[in-house]
Specification:
The protein is an alpha/beta fold. The protein is built from 14 helices and 9 strands. The protein has 2 domains: 159 residues, Glucose-6-phosphate isomerase like protein, domain 1 (Rossmann fold, 3-Layer(aba) Sandwich), CATH 3.40.50.10490; 139 residues, Glucose-6-phosphate isomerase like protein, domain 1 (Rossmann fold, 3-Layer(aba) Sandwich), CATH 3.40.50. A 5-stranded parallel sheet has the order 2-1-3-4-5, with helices on both faces. The protein has a 4-stranded parallel sheet with strand order 7-6-8-9, sandwiched between helices. Strand 6, helix 10 and strand 7 form a beta-alpha-beta unit. Helix 9 crosses helix 13. The longest helix is centred in the last third of the chain and has 22 residues. The chain is globular. It starts with a helix and ends with a helix. 42% of the residues are buried.
Length: 321
Amino acid sequence: MMYESLKNFHKQFEFVPVVENAKGLKKTSSFVIGGMGGSNLAAGLVEIWNPSAEIYSHRDYGLPNLPKKTLKQSLFIASSYSGNTEETLDGFHKALKAKLPVAVIAAGGKLLDLARKNKRPYIQLPHGIQPRTAVGYAFMALLKMTGDTARLREAGALAHLLKSTEYERAGKTLAKKLKGNVPIIYASERNGALAYNWKIRLNETGKVPAFSGLLPELNHNEMNGFDVKEKTRELSQRFFFVFLKDANDHPRILKRMNVTERLYRERGLPVEVVIVNGKSPVHKIFSSTLIADWTAYHLAKEYGIDPEPVPLVEEFKKLIK
């Protein structure tokens, strides 16, 4: 199932999102996306493509700690692929109570029922796959809900431009190198959502500890933890660093990446560079995401683990009920 989801990922951009109860959709340029895990990955990718977009990602219960005026002027979009995420449901209820403009993106569940019951705008996503692999659907829905029709059309072209299986070999090769190590994904602040997407896929699909860090901030603190000394060598030797390099990053950031990479290599730390490239800005975003997907998938296979389910998350959910 997971393999088919990845192989056919480009088809998600054929999805034509429809806003139900569209008359209640507030016209605004400011958006708060309330969602957890894979259901809130698309927001960061939209921000990479459109840095001027006023999008705030909220990953918690309730409403974000923003000025009341800002919240009143923003559309609160409750995003949950399953429609049953308790933090997102709580945010939806709090937004209704505060009489904020609210919309919903979900494949089903309680959230979709609440949107219908309260006559709130909603987009229903195709169902049947893991939320983290449905980021294409969520991306299209978010562009539609925020009224970005030009980018929605351009993203739709990925159904033909993006060839999912072309990235499998790169992912499989990287997975073999990562086996036995803890991946740390490095990117520019601008591409922070890409690094975070990589981390999430390695956690959920690859079933391994994985972390992400951003330049230039990590040059002021994190990197000092990897100035390998004899007494700390054992702590450092299990980490594997993946640098996401984008030619469009600030020249000083690119220089920082090159120098950081050199310093790590000199200290015997394993480093791999993954170039972020593509035929267009949105093609670049999802090319990198697919390499992450295939890397995580084949890493799970390297360990003999089923890449699709998330049993620890399910066990946790049962325990907190």
